[in-house]
Each structure stands twice: as structure tokens, then as C-alpha cells.
Amino acid sequence: FAWALTGGTLAWLVRNPIFLGVTGAGLLGTLVGFSLTMFNTAHWVIVGAPAIATFLSMGTVITYRAQQSQQQHKMVMKLLGQNTSPEIANALWQSRDHLLESGKLPGQRLVATMLFTDIKGFSRISEKMRPEELLLWLNEYLAAMTEEIQQHQGIINKFTGDGLLAVFGVPMPRLEAREVDQDAHHAVSCALAMRRRLQELNKGWKTIGLHDVQMRVGIFTGPVVVGSLGGRDRMEYGVIGNSVNSASRLESCMKDRQVDSCRILIAQETLQHIQNDFEVESWGLMELRGKDQHIQVYRVIDYLRTPKDIPDSPTPPNGKAAADVAQALDSESDRRSEAIADA
């Protein structure tokens, strides 16, 4: 029984398969050495039964851990895997024991940066398309925005028809102020990348008779509570708090004040994390719908420094790379246009 307990404990504590194999071999060697020592002192010790019990217990624990690991993997990927970049998904999986608790992601309070988007005049646009055409067109737009979010280390929390909510800084808590700064940088850089992608998309959409599409982005940095929402049969990754509402209100405020194809509004709470890196225009104190206090609002115009000079900021393509990207986008737009024409 003691050897079985030792083997099971060893299999439970050691995760690395190579180290587990070496340790298991060492345990077997210890058992054989102990038996030989006792045999030389005229004592007989059975080796087979303890060895079998040890490896049976190790096999049982390894099988259980493999099944548990598979269930955890399904849970993490179900909640987050489809909405994150491969790098973040891998980091989540490596930290699964800290994230998962009783089959759920336990609620935790942390500081993150929220990004809301919406298409201006979507109802008017949808009236001019058949449902099949609208779905193809909307999927093309959302696919492009999703790529930018994942490239900038964000997580897509939900789609809201023609809009979406992305979060930068979850699910792992940020322990240092510079990490919160980086999340804010990534969110604003992502919004600027969305503007560039929208301009490219508009070029392709003009060929099928669509007018230029405009979008709005609202960004806010602040405390939120994140974790699993729902029950066993229907569960999603929830992000709740006043900070989420503030980002949504920034996106929807003063809808008629659209100064470019992609209007990006941030609050002072985000600006303090990105100063000296982006050119902004103050819109002054504003009362957002559903908010008791006024918020200092700014419009992001562009980079103040080149992206390559900003730490951990993805650099937009330029030169030959830009031409390659533009060509790829044009090809994709042509393909989508043909699909819409055939719909």
C-alpha cells in the first residue's frame, strides 16, 4: 500500500512526462535496491507486487489527470479560445490551474481597457441589401476587425450585431502599472489599425456600389470584474462593470459628430496611460448618457510617435509589405464582391 501511495503521489505532483519517467525509474530502482539489500541480510522481500502496485497507481493518476486536463482545455477554449490570439490562448492554457475553479472561471477584479465599435448608419445600409448580401458584407467587416484585435493582443468578448466589444488586459491580472499602460496602448493602436482596414475595405466596397462606411470606437480604461457567466449548458466569459458602460457611452455619444471614417474617442482614464505616444484632440467635459459625473473626452487623431518607437506596439505595414497587404486585401475584396453578386 505504501508503494502504491508513493507512486500515486508522485504522478499527481510531477507534470513533466520526462521528469515523471525518470523519477518513476528511480523509484523502481530504489525498490530493487532495497530488496537486494534485504536479501543480502537473509531477508526476503517481494519486488513484483510493490512494483505492480506502484505503476498501477501511477497509471490511474495519470489517466485521471489526462481526463481532467481535457475537460479544462475544453472549458478554457469554449470561453476564450475562439476569441483570442494563439499566444494568449496558449498563456491561458499554461495558467489553467489558476484560472479554473470548480469547472468555471472564478470572478476576479482587475484593470483592463475596453474597446467598443459600431457602424454608423447600419440600419440605413441594411435596408439597401438583401439578407444574404448583408450577411456576407457584415462578416467581411467583422473578420477584418477581429484580425486587428487579435494582432493587438485583445480578446473579443462579444459581437453586438454590427458592433463588438473587445477587452485588453484579461483574463490574467496586470500586476504592474506598465502592463496597464501597454494594454491601453494596444487598444488605441488597434483602433487606428481598424481605421486603416476600414479604408481598405471601403475601396473594395465601392466596386459593388456601396458608399463609404463609417464607424465609431469608444475606449475606456478602468476596473472590471471578469469570470464565467451562465450555467453548465450555456456559459460565456463575462466582463462587467461601470468601465464597460463608459466605453459603450463613449462610442455612442454625439453620433452626428463624425469627423473621419473611424472616430476614436477615449476618456482621461485612458489618456493618462498613453500620453506622448498619440495625437489627441480634446472635446472637453461631456455628460455621457447614464452617467452622473462628467468625463473628459478626447478624440484620437493618429500616432504622435512612429509605432516602432512605442514599446510592444505592432508596426503597421509599409513599403513592399504594405503593397503585399494591399494586394491581398484587394483580392479578398474581389472574391467577396463576386460572392455578393452571385447571392
What does this structure look like?
It is elongated and about 95 Å long. A hairpin with an 8-residue loop joins strand 7 and strand 8. The chain is α+β, with helices and mostly antiparallel strands. The C terminus is likely disordered. The longest helix is centred in the N-terminal third of the chain and has 32 residues. Helix 1 runs parallel beside helix 3, helix 7 runs antiparallel to helix 8 and helix 7 runs antiparallel to helix 11. Strands 1, 2, 3, 4, 5, 6, 7 and 8 form an 8-stranded mixed sheet that branches. It has 11 helices and 8 strands. The protein is 52% helix and 20% strand. The protein has 2 domains: 77 residues; 243 residues, Alpha-Beta Plaits, CATH 3.30.70.
By helix and strand content, what is the structural category?
alpha+beta
CATH superfamily name of the largest domain? Nucleotide cyclase, GGDEF domain
Helical residues, percent? 40-55%
Uncertain stretches of 5 or more adjacent residues: 315-343
* Distance between the first and last residues' Cα: 70 Å
- Describe the largest sheet: 8 strands, mixed
CATH topology of the largest domain: Alpha-Beta Plaits
Count of strand segments? 8
CATH class of the largest domain: Alpha Beta
- Domains, number: 2
What is the CA-based Rg, rounded?
A: 27 Å
Principal-axis shape equals elongated
Sequence of secondary-structure elements: HHHHHEHHEEHEEHEHEEH
